[in-house]
Amino acid sequence: MRKAAVRNRLKVLRAERDWSQAELAERLDVSRQAVNAIETGKYDPSLPLALKIGRLFGLRIEEIFDDGHGDGAHE
Amino acid sequence: MMAMGMAPMNDEPGVGRRFGRIALIAAASVVAVFGVGVAVGVVAAHVERGGGMPSARMIGLLAAAVLLAAGAAFLAWGQIGAMAKEAGAATARERRNRNVLIVCGALGGVMGLMLSLIGPTPFSTFSNDPLPAWLAVTLAAVVALLIPALSLYWHRHVVDEQEAAAYSKGALLGLYVFWIGAPAWWLLWRGGLAPAPDGVLIYFATVVVAGAVWMWAKYR
Predict the structure, then answer these.
(1) CA distance B183 to B177
(2) Residue of A nearest to B95 (CA)
(3) CA-based nearest distance B171→chain A, Å
(4) What is the predicted pLDDT for the residue at A71?
(5) Domain boundaries, chain B
(6) B11–A15 C-beta distance less than 8 A
(7) Angle, to 10 degrees, between the axis of helix B15-48 and the axis of helix B56-87?
(8) Is B131 helix (H, G, I), strand (E, B) or coil?
(9) What pLDDT does residue B163 have?
């Protein structure tokens, strides 16, 4: 069965802080490819990384990631 | 929705261009090793025949081989430089990754050169020809001891979870190539429909598929 796509606001949140992908990658201790893959929806982060992203932006996971089943579906 | 142009978005260079560069580097490296092998083979054959004044044909062949190797090495180096320029400032994890890849590439290059220079024929890098025992033991020790140590370091300190996932995907598909390809070939051979299974070819097929899928999953 094909996995449902999880959308996220990472690119928007990064842009609001004027960070490059490299800067965000450095803060998350991952590669730029990982940031790019998450932003473009090609890779869903693990729970520990999602929690780390949430802490970095001061948001709950559901405020960043959306699987289309929650009440905070991103536009 | 966010306004456009708030920050640099995708800093990563285009996937197609990056794949093109990686493919060029790999192909040029093989050609460079091949060129060196041919040059050494030509000289070795000349010495075996008793030396003396080299013929114009031999000088031409030697010059062509050296030019081929130098050109390929220059091309590979240029592509590596271009990739580094496009990538911009790397994160600490990426720098560690790059260092490990450089060490692996250097190891592979040295091993390829040794096979080319010391093997029984100049084209024997990927052949099944016999090797001197000392060379076989040295290269096997590198493969069996040094590469696992590097791999362990890479898995523990270098890769992030996205690359680990990409690597797992490549490893799984590579394993399927082996699981399916090897017995299928063996059965066809037993049925008299194919030549005897070649372990080196099966190995390369596994590595090429695993590597291609890994790169695709990492950079797509």
Answers:
(1) 10
(2) A31
(3) 17
(4) 63
(5) 15-159, 160-220
(6) no
(7) 160
(8) coil
(9) 94
Rounded to whole angstroms, the Cα distance separating A45 from A34 reads: 9
Q: CB B97 to CB A31 under 8 A? A: yes
Which CATH number describes the domain made up of A7-65?
1.10.260.40
pLDDT digits (tens, 9 = 90+) for A28-74: 999 988 999 999 999 999 999 999 999 999 999 999 999 887 765 55
Tell me what ipTM this predicted complex has. Answer: 0.86
Q: Where are the domains of chain A?
A: 7-65
> Which pLDDT score, from 0 to 100, does residue B6 have?
38
Cα within 13 Å of Cα(A66), Cβ side: 13
Return averaged pLDDT per consecutive 10 residues of chain B, 220 residues in all: 41 67 84 83 79 83 90 88 73 86 86 77 69 90 92 92 96 97 97 94 94 90
Judging contacts by C-beta atoms under 8 Å, the chain A residues touching residue B10 are: 21, 36, 39-40
Minimum Cα–Cα distance from A11: chain B residue? B9
Cβ–Cβ below 8 Å for B7 and A31? no
Chains A, B: CB contacts under 8 A, how many?
Answer: 79
> Which own/partner contact pairs does A11-15 have at CB distance under 8 Å and 24+ positions apart?
A11/A39, A11/B2, A11/B9, A12/B2, A13/A57, A13/A59, A13/A64, A14/A39, A14/B7, A15/B2, A15/B6, A15/B7, A15/B9
